[in-house]
Design brief:
Radius of gyration: 16 Å
CATH superfamily: P-loop containing nucleotide triphosphate hydrolases
Helix content: 40-55%
CATH class: Alpha Beta
Shape: globular
Number of helices: 7
Number of domains: 1
Bound molecules: 2'-deoxyadenosine-5'-diphosphate
Strand order of the largest sheet: 2-5-1-6-7
Largest sheet: 5 strands, parallel
Distance between the termini: 28 Å
Strand content: 15-25%
CATH architecture: 3-Layer(aba) Sandwich
CATH topology: Rossmann fold
Number of strands: 7
């Protein structure tokens, strides 16, 4: 059969995804702090490296150049040890990730977070609908092995701290299981 290239990793790669405002960046920074993994904020990377085809003025967001983004990230992902933060999960190669966290936030909590960001009404509505329809969770379940996709509630600071502890515990276990 065809041999699929596989790059063994000394450390895992974790994807933290979810609708904008669910707490990906804050949680990822805390996970990086707690575990020593390197945080890759994909939205920032897209902006800094111009991995886009300009601005979608209607939604006030960048039109992603997926091929450029994947090329840019491939070498970073190979050795492992990354916590990747992005609102879209189905564009990445499945083999990159050992754990996929989908953050979830209740409507009444998410709405004011999006408002506080100064998003326009169209962008708020788009993101609220995304969360209500569980778009990211369903995309994650379609794109990755069932057992690596974990849904976590992110409504409060307590929940966020609990989520960070869970990811840290998961990582310690991964490292113990993968010791050479
Ligand atoms: P994202 O990266 O998913 O867009 P963020 O980390 O920038 O989200 O968080 C958006 C805002 O909401 C920010 O002001 C921090 C706050 N926040 C996020 N998760 C939270 C939580 N679980 N409890 C309280 N506040 C939270």
């Amino acid at each position: 059969g065809v041999e699929v290239p596989h790059y063994p990793r000394d450390l895992p790669n974790i994807l933290i995804t979810g609708t904008p405002g669910t707490g990906k960046t804050t949680t990822s920074e805390m996970v990086a702090e707690a575990t020593g993994l390197a945080h890759i904020n994909v939205s920032e990377l897209v902006k800094i490296k111009s991995l886009h085809e300009g601005l979608d003025t209607e939604f006030d967001s960048y039109i992603l150049d997926e091929d450029k983004l994947i090329d840019e990230m491939e070498e970073m992902m190979k050795p492992g040890g990354k916590v990747v933060d992005f609102h879209t999960c189905e564009i990445f190669p499945e083999r990159w990730f050992d754990l996929v966290i989908v953050l979830r936030t209740d409507n009444g909590v998410l709405y004011p977070r999006l408002e506080a960001r100064g998003y326009n009404a169209k962008k708020i509505n788009e993101n609220m609908e995304c969360e209500i329809m569980q778009v990211v969770l369903e995309d994650a379940r379609e794109s990755y092995a069932e057992q690596i996709v974990i849904e976590l509630q992110s409504n409060s600071i307590d929940e966020m701290e609990e989520n960070v502890s869970r990811v840290k515990a998961w990582m310690d276990q991964w490292v113990a299981n993968n010791k050479k």
